[in-house]
Amino acid sequence: MLAEAGINQTIIKKIAGHSGAMTLTEKVYTHFDIKELADAINKI
User: Fold this and answer.
1) pTM, whole model, 2 decimals?
2) For each of the chain's 44 residues, which pLDDT tens digit applies?
3) Contact at 8 Å (CB) between 25 and 31?
């Protein structure tokens, strides 16, 4: 559902807790605040 709503794949992985599926770059260089994650969840 999140992908269909146009949510960034890295945010989807973070919400789903799939940190193992994240690349090293995603783990190190991408950080999201709570508002960004909540906004993504609210699009469902």
Assistant:
1) 0.57
2) 888 889 888 888 888 877 677 777 777 767 788 898 888 888 88
3) no
